[in-house]
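Annex B.
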Amino acid sequence: MNPRLNKLNPYPFEKLRSLLSGVSYKKEQLEPINLSIGEPKHPSPKSIADAIKDNISSISHYPATKGEELLRETIANWIENRYIATKIDPNTQILPVLGSREALFSFTQIVIDNSFRNPVVICPNPFYQIYEGASILAGAEPYYVNLDPENNFSCKWDDVPTEIWDRTQLVFVCSPGNPAGNVINLEEWKKIFELSQKYNFVIASDECYSEIYHDESNPPLGGLQAANILGIKDYNNLVVFSSLSKRSSVPGLRSGFVAGDSKIMNKFLLYRTYNGSAMSPLISAASIAAWSDEKHVHANRQLYNDKIEIFYSKINKYLEVTKPQASFYIWAKTPVSDTEFTKKLYQEESITVLPGSFLAREYLGVNPGNKRIRIALVSSLEECIEAANRIARFVQTYY
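Acetylornithine/N-succinyldiaminopimelate aminotransferase: predicted structure tokens.
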């Protein structure tokens, strides 16, 4: 067996199950509300279901590894409409993928070159654990850069020593961020690109929350758009990852795209030819329908905005909370340890949240997730209001 498997850490939800094992609800009359996992619960658009029904016969054909031409063109059109003045070649700079999770993992395997001594992959801290697991299984050392709550939860890039940068082959960034909902601004993008140019590492920009934002006049800046503004030719060393899961409330569809540097994309296509992860024509048809329609995305976004505004207004008096710039997460500080708070909240109010420390690693003597919880506002508006009321009651009662 691959010995690197033994280096993998338990997944956050495995830790959560262990934490809550044997704990029972004290108030049986309360309906349980699970806000721990970022799985969208909004209805998916009818156009996607119709596309699947209308193309059911396509399952009799093998899919193309590169993806269907019409899907790549549809994605290119979406990118150009979403990110002003951003042009991309659907033939050489886009690949459809089976959701961003699959792509983030497999992409790491093509980037890491183990012929160099002790390769490093830099991850934001807290982070999506796929970054860490993919790095370990590729034979690289994960290195964690703490988010700075005093600076919009941006990464403390200046904390990274030169000897680490010298060994860095891949840097993960996540914008809008999970769990803090922060958006990387142009100034920070400029710093990231300059570091990439200096140390020649690849940037993997995870943008799966890009369409869940609160200011319709100011959508989050994306990596391709930032590169275009800053004159980074051909998106050198940049690859972005996007998904329909959050945008269109179809996490089970497993559909997204990867786009960027054509030199890297060509190698990724080669890898995928052997990896067998081509998108079915059926999913491709559904994806074309989804990327072609913005009406359902606006409606989806408004539902999240309503929940965030109401939830924030109800718990802001009781917990220290920063309203997210984007995404559907609330990243709240707790008056006691995050694990103690999570366990007692589950027991007393039948609400499940995720301890922040489960999403992070200790770096420089600090786990930046300590005394924080991630609350995923994916349930109905009514459930989110009920959860906010219970959390407020809980904090008032015990803290």
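The chain has a mean pLDDT of 96. The chain has two domains: 3-43+296-398, 59-292. Further annotation is deferred to the next reporting cycle.
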